[in-house]
Amino acid sequence: MESLLIATNLRKSFGKAEAVKDISLSIRPGECLALLGPNGAGKTTTVEMLEGLLKPDGGSIQIFGKDLAKNRSEIMQDVGVMLQDTQMYKRMSVRETLSLFQSFFRSTISVNEAIALVELQDKADTYLGKLSGGQKQRAYLACALINNPRLLFLDEPTTGLDPQARRAIWDLLLKHKGQDKSILLTTHYMDEAEKLADRIAVVDHGRIIAEGSPKDLIESTIGAQVLCFSFAAENDFATLKQNAGLNWLSEAVRVGEQYEISASDAVSRTTDLCRASDRLNLTLDHLELRRSTLEDVFIKLTGRSMRDA
Predict the structure, then answer these.
(1) Together in a domain, 137 and 237
(2) How would residue 55 be classed by pLDDT, with cut points 50, 70 and 90?
(3) Is 219 inside any structural domain?
(4) Number of domains present in the structure of the chain
(5) Beta bridge partners of 258
(6) Given pLDDT bands bounded at 50, 70 and 90, which one contains residue 1?
(7) What would the pLDDT profile of 138-177 be if each residue is shown by its tens digit?
């Protein structure tokens, strides 16, 4: 199946700072690709190049089989964009705002259909300034969907929303993707990426450092489970690492007040940890095995948690 978007060897610098060094990616019909990365990794610059807002210093972008640099106006007729910091005139109603956006495109769905898609029928004639945070996000999503786009760019679409509002937007996006439409998503929420994305690309220092489905990334980078533990005394882990003779302890990462390590052999590592702690008279005050997550992948690949990024 031919990709809707193909970006090859993208590069972008600002002065002497290389924001994007060599990024290539593609998105197939009906697929959601999530870009994850810490602040300053090059995600935003990459997306702005893909949207035609920034001109690459090198590389090429094709959307719908056409060169973006030469055909942006035509291409954008079938593209929807929802920015993180969307700002619109607060004294326009939802219906008026959608009518305005409808005028930008040759082919659209009806305003009433867009309102129904995001379930804002009872707020159709309400000013944007009077909507709740979740309702505003749904209105902005309706604006991005008004042209029934084949490709949808979403930048942090649920930031600041409560869990119920986030899940409502997820449901809308899953329905859109199910119609053979494609989505490029940037998000700081790991559960959002795991829920929506078919593939994930982790970006750091201007490059894609890992790519695959959420399941494949977790299994290849971390393994199925993570062993979490902490000690009663601050220096006990250093003592354990120095005297236990367990080479795998060098892979442990400190997260908050505890240490975490992938547990490819969960039973063996848990047993070895407990025996070594007893032998060295060290007190474990927390010990658990949990399912590996995308957050674990992100920490291992970038050295930072997504919350800190």
Answers:
(1) no
(2) very high
(3) no
(4) 2
(5) 255
(6) low
(7) 899 999 999 999 999 998 888 878 888 888 889 989 988 8
Question: Which residue segment(s) compose the domain that 164 sits in?
Answer: 5-212
Residue 267 lies in a domain: yes
Q: 190 — phi, psi (to 5°)?
A: -65, -35
Structural domain includes residue 300:
no
- State how far the Cα of 249 lies from the Cα of 261, in Å rounded to an integer: 8
Residues in the chain: 309
Token pair 């949808």: residue: 152
- What's phi and psi for 14, nearest 5 deg? -120, 100
Chain mean pLDDT for the chain: 91
CA 234 – CA 257 distance, rounded (Å): 9
Residue that has been written with the tokens 């250093």 in this structure? 238
Residue 296 domain-assigned (yes or no): no
